[in-house]
UniProtKB/TrEMBL annotation:
Name used for this protein in its record: Transcriptional regulator
Length: 89
């Protein structure tokens, strides 16, 4: 069961992305995710027991999903433009 602190932290990244009008936070997050993926890839090349290998695979999958979510999330301000009769209307 998640604590209220854990639930709060889950939404912190989303809040930062929604407020990121410059795109800087999104770019930094993408770099960090890329670094995590690279670290998992390097670690996976080493010999590991089955459990560790599965954890590395799961980590790579989680990073991949995070990148997909990041790519699908509209840039800051896009929802406001759509709702105000912009190009999406």
């Amino acid at each position: 069961m998640m604590t209220s602190q854990e639930q709060h932290n889950d939404f912190e990244v989303e809040q930062h992305l929604r407020a990121d009008t410059s795109g800087r936070y999104r770019a930094e997050l993408r770099v960090r995710l890329g670094d995590m993926h690279d670290a998992c890839t390097l670690a996976r090349r080493q010999l590991h027991d089955r459990d560790t290998y599965r954890r590395l695979e799961a980590g790579m999958a989680a990073v991949g999903v995070a990148v997909t979510v990041l790519d699908l999330m509209p840039p800051a301000g896009a929802a406001r433009e759509y709702g105000s009769g912009g190009q999406g209307a």
